[in-house]
Design goal:
three-stranded parallel beta sheet, two-stranded parallel ribbon, 7 helices, 5 strands, 11% strand, globular
Length: 169
């Protein structure tokens, strides 16, 4: 989870490959109307996001029902959005990728082939509700190399403890 430019796709793909599980990109669950809206620089509303979040939740449930662990990228900016995802069958665990607004904007400016314009970053940062202490997950600073973040996630998930952890690399 995290705002645009935080490296969700890069880290999620690496993590899924490393642990050998299914992977999905949350953007594939967006409606054409949502993609058009974001491409035009218009932030999505909670109403716009509701069917998108439900589709991700349902995919996670399908994977859990099949006995598969899965990794999916999703901004999951608000706790209420994460609550929808947590309603999936199976355990839902979050990796919150965070970074400075300057680094995030730099990354967004440097990428190609993505519909999310840099102009939407301030609205995402304003909407972002970081993981609360009672939410199952880990926070990682994206200034660290993606490989280091994935190494840390794998190590921490293999540890016997669970719950909220913070890692600032």
């Amino acid at each position: 989870m995290g705002v645009a430019g935080s490296g969700k796709t890069t880290v999620a793909r690496m993590l899924a490959d490393r642990i050998g599980v299914e992977y999905a990109e949350a953007d594939q669950f967006h409606s054409e109307a949502n993609i058009a809206k974001m491409s035009a620089g218009t932030p999505l509303t909670d109403e716009d996001r509701a069917p998108w979040l439900a589709a991700i939740r349902d995919w996670l449930s399908t994977e859990a029902d099949a006995g598969r662990t899965a990794v999916v990228t999703c901004s999951a900016l608000k706790r209420s959005y994460r609550d929808v995802l947590r309603a999936a069958r199976g355990r839902v665990w979050f990796l919150h990728l965070h970074g400075s607004p300057e680094l995030l904007a730099e990354r967004m400016t440097g990428r190609s082939g993505h519909f999310m314009p840099t102009s939407l970053l301030p609205s995402q940062l304003a909407t972002l509700e970081p993981l609360d202490d009672d939410e199952d997950g880990l926070t990682a600073d994206v200034a660290a190399p993606p490989e280091e973040i994935v190494d840390d996630v794998v190590a921490r998930c293999s540890a016997p403890t669970s719950g909220r952890t913070t890692h600032d690399a």
